[in-house]
């Protein structure tokens, strides 16, 4: 089948630093060496002023757009919004996405070899924070020869990284787009994270994080953690519409403890499939970093945190049915930014898709982001990259049958955290 306006075949890349001088973490621990997995789409302009960094969510990766081969049937997790003529127009902008430290998609993680002992880190891997992730991203941006980003954008956990850039590295970015996110994990969010971690701890195969190379992995615990998390990505309205109380391949109750309801089958499928693409220890580290995130902690005031960030332009987006990061989180952020005199555009988008909406409301997100970036590029006098034959919209043919809209939606949801 033919995909138009795709970035086409993309290359997974990596950058390693801190080989001689260890990378100092907020905890006081160090990490050496550090590898960051990343991908880029589009081209830098002459003065390198058109770079946009995309930050991924909990289970996301650096593979945000395009395909890794012509046989690849699943595009990057935000392919609907990144590409020629899309929200993040790669004919106009140079788009970067990197994998956070501690995740399991190519960046340094608990599964990597600890050079001090010659075996996987496991729980000897130091605890990392959102601040650590962003400082590592700065190392990558410097490696790419970019002094200042035009914009940083991301949803959910990605939005936390966006806000970290704005709050603590305001001279490195012109604009930010935090979507469906928060400036601090609330007690409820920490509680959901802890339930997921406890599910992993309770799996005997976890073995205090020492399961690499073993016959069994803590898949049962990780699957339950994902199921709990996935519930929070949906809304009650979307659950009613998608599943209702329908039974799965049954006409009546079986009066036994088997999977009977459609919603049970859906959660079980997502939990089990997650174990094939994510690492249990990475889940622990990434959720802990999210729980530690609190931008008001140093000052006690969110507005005070952004006092040096008033020159940055902000597009803040929330969704009416998102109960994981309810709209009040974004409204509190907007109030703080307005208090310091920042240029803020805020939209609370009406949607029934819950937290998933930032991936599923493609048309709305395209309109919002495209308009914001067009204004930004105009006001910052951002030149277009020099045209080349490679800069044309790419068409690639994949060896697969056309997918239904429902399957497309499922694939998008699987990429969300």
Description:
The protein has a single domain, classed as Alpha/Beta hydrolase fold, catalytic domain (Rossmann fold, 3-Layer(aba) Sandwich), CATH 3.40.50.1820. Helices cover 33% and strands 17% of the residues. The chain has 12 helices and 16 strands. The protein has helices at residues 130-143, 157-168, 187-201, 219-233, 236-242, 262-275, 280-292, 302-305, 327-339, 357-360, 362-379, 405-414, and strands spanning 2-6, 13-17, 23-24, 30-31, 34-41, 51-55, 82-83, 88-89, 94-98, 113-114, 119-120, 149-155, 173-179, 313-319, 343-349, 394-397. The strands form 5 sheets. An 8-stranded mixed sheet has the order 2-5-9-6-12-13-14-15, sandwiched between helices. Helix 1 crosses helix 2 and helix 4 packs across helix 6 (262-275).
